[in-house]
Amino acid sequence: MLNVAELRRTVGGTENFFFREDFPPLQLGESKYFFQSPIEVHLTVNNTGKSLFVEGRINGGLEVMCSKCLKNFSYQMSFDFEDEFIPEKYYVENHDDNDAFVFDKDEFSIDERIQEHILLHLPMRFICSDSCQGLCPQCGTDLNLNSCTCVDNDIDPRLAILSKWNKGV
Ligand SMILES: [Zn+2]
Ligand SMILES: [Zn+2]
Prior knowledge:
By secondary structure, this protein is an alpha+beta fold. Helices cover 16% and strands 37% of the residues. Strand 5 and strand 6 (52-65) form a beta hairpin. 12% of the residues are buried. One zinc ion is lined by residues 66, 68-69, 71, 127-128, 132.
């Protein structure tokens, strides 16, 4: 819960918040992702007079699967975000603020809002490391651990010279 009782009455005022909280798993399409530890949320909130302008940082680890080698690994999230919390009375007057978070009390939960920010910042695919070789598309061998012989078989001899190039000989 975020308590802005004082801040919302102090135009021009700034307040810092920090909390550490357990979040339920994230559901993304068919996949479910579990957080490995509580999420840390830092907020610097400024009362602009019409809204509370938020600069935040989120840290946490998510258990995910590498889309190249299919191994589970820990994806470390750490990102900054901006947000705006608008008191209900101002929101009604101003319809341009559709993206803003609307609140009507001194104390409110922003858990769902935090989850939205997390979803927005997740990459399209999780890859365990820049150097991950993935699985052989033909035999399924994990090329990080082993090599296989089928890799080059399908390559058109005319392209073989190019593939040598790509490997940066
Ligand atoms: Zn991988
Ligand atoms: Zn293979």
